[in-house]
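EI: anyone free to look at a 223-residue chain?
SC: sure, send it
EI:
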Amino acid sequence: MALKHGAVKYMEVSALRNEGVAELFSEKMATGNDIDIKCVVVGNYEAGKTCALITLTTDFQLDWGPELYVPTVMHDFKKRGELDNTPLCVEFWDTKGLEEYSRLRPLAYPDSHVFLLFFDITDNKDSFEEMFSFWWSEIRRFSSDVPIILVGSKIDLRYNGLVTISTVEGEAMAKKIGAAKYMEISSLLDKGLTELFEAVASIGYHYKRKKTARMTKTKCNVL
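SC: here you go
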């Protein structure tokens, strides 16, 4: 059937038994020759990750409402751009935020160049503290030095009379987890998303260059 439809390869997986999943993601990266920057997107349940990525990577404008939730297990979005006249493609790996996916989610982490760590600015203080207690710990357990951009989402709700995480608090958390940058966005207003893409492209690109140079130096020392 794979040959009939011109597929590159046929593979079988079981997420329940964790069989073939790592090979699937490795194959995905190997066959995607045009991928330049890999950005893994993580954060709490309903933090606005998927809505932000759809708005960022497509021209299709949806009416994002507070009742809209886009469920995700693992999905990727691509966006092309330029950095210093260098064409590049950022692939965003959107992941599920629920704790029961903690075994599956890290399979997306290898070979990443930058992480986006999302939180909803209307989160309570306990959920917000999970940026450090849960998410920072998970990221650093699997990716010791990949840069993190902390993102406060749904800032359009800040002026609706709701109690929200302030910009100062967001910046303090970014400093606490050693994030490369703190940014705030609104998918509803399409605010801050262009700047977010530019930050991902720049930070991811420079990390990739540094990593490549480090690997090249190591090979030379071995030789």
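EI: The two ends are 46 Å apart (CA to CA).
SC: 👍
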